[in-house]
């Protein structure tokens, strides 16, 4: 979904020293205002609350979106807010898939040089930052937004709340899905379905593969990557395994269910029967590789955030019209997909020099006028995190055939359960998030591909997880 670490800076308004004002929380209601030059609507309540902050500055750290145009649209929304409020806002990008992003930002917070506000994927990062003591309580903002825009996306209530307090403000929902080439399937007489088992999907991928035509069915890697991590963990969960217990505190990885899942997945990469469906170089793919190969039209299936789907649509790639979108596959322990999606959450860092302005900016960026331009450049990837924002612009309800699936995912009742008692989402855990960030899952699968028995690889991975949990203050 991303590329290597990149800390590029877009200083379109300049950065100064922010002075923390005494502005209270503003409810961003329906009344809106525009500045000259066709600026986007900024709710009057936010403008009023920001009046005492005119001339101050703040820094924002944005998790890099796959779409360059979406990043530019976000810049535009930020600039419009800054112009309307008479403030200065610097926006910097961070690539979240490098593995060291938490350590870097934590060092900045501890050193007193962190940005005031950031948005990061809730299920991957918020628990880690909270455990490190890096975040301010933002319950006041979430309470105000809930009064205006209804409930936030369901999964955010698990990953952004600790001890009954919100430490991240839901910003936008990230659709995640599975994608099949329906034209290749039709050529083979295979009708698309909305639900597959992993075994069924594997067999479809093999059936639609034709290396002579540069058609490779299985477009996923188990090399170090966010997409590889996500696929491995989702498959293991559907078989009834999990990194940790439901309370997020105890490593429970080494189970027969996990071994069964790892055995199944390892077979895809080691059994000669499935070689025709594996793309050349798949063993060394990084996070952009499945995106690039899907868009090049050589993959029959991939699993990704909606970044790849969005890119095919916005760039009028013929792959878009031939894409069948469905949720995650089911496994022996599941009757339905366990796919939750994710959301980006705004966090205010400890020691923020302009927390008041940061909170007001967050309240603006979640609104339909600020979000729709970003979403149109990243359809399905950047969607509303708040119930009433979905209905605030016709684009969100009717802009793409896949949007209803994404909305259902964002608002589905949680938790989702497996037959053996696992519940997803599990309680947000710094240990689990650190395990994923350390690529323990992909490293385990690499060992299997290189000949290690699945049971031995799972046991070794479990031991690494125990060490990581202990480092995160969760001794086993």
TrEMBL record:
Highest taxon above the source species: Bacteria
InterPro entries in UniProt: Bact_solute-bd_prot1 (IPR050490), SBP (IPR006059), TAT_signal (IPR006311)
Taxonomic lineage of the native organism: Bacteria, Bacillati, Actinomycetota, Actinomycetes, Micromonosporales
Organism in which the protein naturally occurs: Paractinoplanes lichenicola
Pfam families linked: SBP_bac_1
Protein name: Extracellular solute-binding protein
Gene3D superfamilies in the record: Periplasmic binding protein-like II
């Amino acid at each position: 979904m991303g590329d290597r670490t990149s800390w590029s800076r877009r200083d379109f308004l300049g950065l100064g020293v922010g002075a923390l004002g005494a502005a209270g929380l503003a409810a961003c209601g329906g009344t809106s205002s525009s500045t000259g030059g066709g600026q986007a609507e900024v709710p009057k309540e936010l403008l009023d609350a920001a009046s005492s902050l005119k001339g101050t500055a703040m820094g924002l750290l944005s998790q890099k979106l796959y779409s360059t145009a979406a990043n530019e649209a976000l810049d535009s929304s930020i600039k419009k807010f800054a112009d309307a409020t008479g403030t200065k806002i610097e926006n910097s990008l961070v690539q979240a898939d490098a593995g060291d992003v938490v350590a870097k930002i934590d060092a900045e917070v501890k050193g007193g040089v962190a940005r005031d506000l950031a948005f990061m994927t809730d299920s991957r990062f918020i628990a880690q930052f909270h455990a490190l003591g890096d975040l301010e309580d933002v319950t006041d903002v979430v309470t105000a937004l809930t009064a205006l825009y209804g409930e936030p996306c369901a999964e955010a209530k698990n990953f952004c709340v600790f001890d009954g307090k919100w430490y991240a403000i839901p910003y936008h929902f990230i659709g995640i899905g599975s994608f099949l080439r329906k034209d290749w399937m039709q050529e083979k007489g295979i009708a698309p379905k909305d639900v597959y088992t992993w075994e069924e999907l594997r067999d479809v991928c093999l059936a639609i593969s034709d290396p002579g035509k540069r058609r490779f069915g299985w477009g996923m890697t188990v090399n170090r990557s966010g997409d590889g991590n996500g696929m491995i963990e989702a498959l293991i969960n559907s078989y009834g395994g999990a990194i940790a217990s439901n309370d997020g505190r105890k490593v429970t990885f080494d189970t027969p269910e996990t071994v069964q899942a790892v055995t199944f997945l390892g077979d895809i990469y080691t059994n000669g029967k499935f070689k025709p469906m594996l793309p050349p170089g798949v063993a060394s793919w990084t996070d952009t590789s499945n995106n690039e190969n899907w868009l090049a039209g050589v993959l029959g299936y991939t699993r990704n955030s909606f970044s790849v789907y969005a890119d095919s649509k916005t760039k009028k790639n013929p792959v878009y019209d031939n894409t069948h979108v469905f949720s995650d596959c089911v496994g022996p322990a599941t009757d339905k997909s366990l796919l939750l999606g994710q959301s980006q959450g705004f966090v205010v860092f400890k020691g923020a020099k302009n927390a008041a302005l940061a909170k007001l900016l967050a309240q603006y960026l979640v609104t339909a006028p600020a979000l729709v331009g970003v979403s149109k450049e990243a359809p399905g990837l950047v969607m509303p995190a708040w119930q009433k924002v979905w209905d605030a612009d016709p684009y969100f309800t009717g802009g793409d055939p896949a949007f209803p699936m994404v909305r259902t995912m964002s608002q589905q009742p949680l938790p989702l359960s497996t037959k053996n008692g696992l519940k997803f989402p599990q309680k947000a855990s710094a240990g689990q998030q650190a395990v994923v960030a350390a690529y323990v899952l992909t490293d385990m699968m690499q060992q299997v591909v290189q000949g290690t028995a699945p049971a031995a690889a799972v046991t070794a991975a479990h031991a690494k997880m125990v060490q990581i949990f202990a480092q995160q203050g969760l001794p086993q």
